[in-house]
Structure formats: C-alpha cells, structure tokens
Amino acid sequence: QVQLVESGGGLVQPGGSLRLSCTASGSMFKINTMGWYRQAPEKQRELVAFISSGGSTNYADSVKGRFTISRDNAKNTVYLQMNSLKPEDTAVYYCYADVLLSSWGNYWGQGTQVTVSS
User: In 3D, which of 41, 3, 4 has the Cα closest to residue 21?
Assistant: First the structure.
C-alpha cells in the first residue's frame, strides 16, 4: 500500500508564491519519477512538472520560469515552488509517483486546492 499526502495549497494573490509538498509512504522498494498535475474547473488534467530519481526535470510551457520542482529522495518527498502566480494557475494540484512494489505502479495524492485571486 502506497500513500501520497500533499500539503501547501491555499489562497494567494496574483504575483504571490506557494510551495506544495507531497510525501510518499508505505512499503516501497523504489520510487522513480515524481511530479505534479493540475486540473482547473471544466478542464482536463494537465501535467505541470516532473522530476526523475536522478533529478532531471521537465515543465509545462505555461509554468516555465515560474515554477520549480525538486525532491528529497531520503524523505520520499517532492516539492513544487510556485512563484509569480497567476489567476490561471488556479486548480487542484495532484502529485503522483511511479513506485516499485512487486511491480511498477502509478500512485496519486488526493489533491490540494490552489486559488490565485485578489
């Protein structure tokens, strides 16, 4: 059983910053890629950023230069530092991880709401 627990969402004004965290727990042999998706109301879920176990990163064009993804492998935790937030960043943010138990599987957090509004 693998659990991903997110924290750090909330309400912020345009131009502000938030830092999301997501920690994986359970009987895991290995975690490969970790990342974040988001879903705004009436929109499809979209990839925000991901990071490999070795630290390679990839970002959606809409967040490049504003968001930074990082991870602490010792803590099984991935972070998303979000700066210069815009109203269009408003969404539920979900973390995910590719985890090896008896086989590789994709696991998701419950989501955390980020609202950017004045």
Answer: 4
What is the C-alpha separation between 4 and 90, in angstroms, rounded? 21
Alpha carbons 4 and 27: distance in angstroms, whole number? 12
CB 100 within 8 A of CB 76: no
Give dist(CA 68, CA 65) in Å, integer. 8
3-state secondary structure 89-112: HCEEEEEEEEEECCCEEEEECCCE
The Cα–Cα gap between 95 and 40 comes to 15
Q: What are phi and psi of 48, to 5 degrees?
A: -100, -55
Position 11 pLDDT exceeds 90: yes
The DSSP code for 29 is S
Q: State the CB neighbour count (10 A cutoff) for residue 21.
A: 17
Task: Supply φ then ψ for residue 89, to 5 degrees.
Answer: -85, -5
**Could you read off the pLDDT of 59-75 as tens digits, one per residue?**
999 999 999 999 999 99
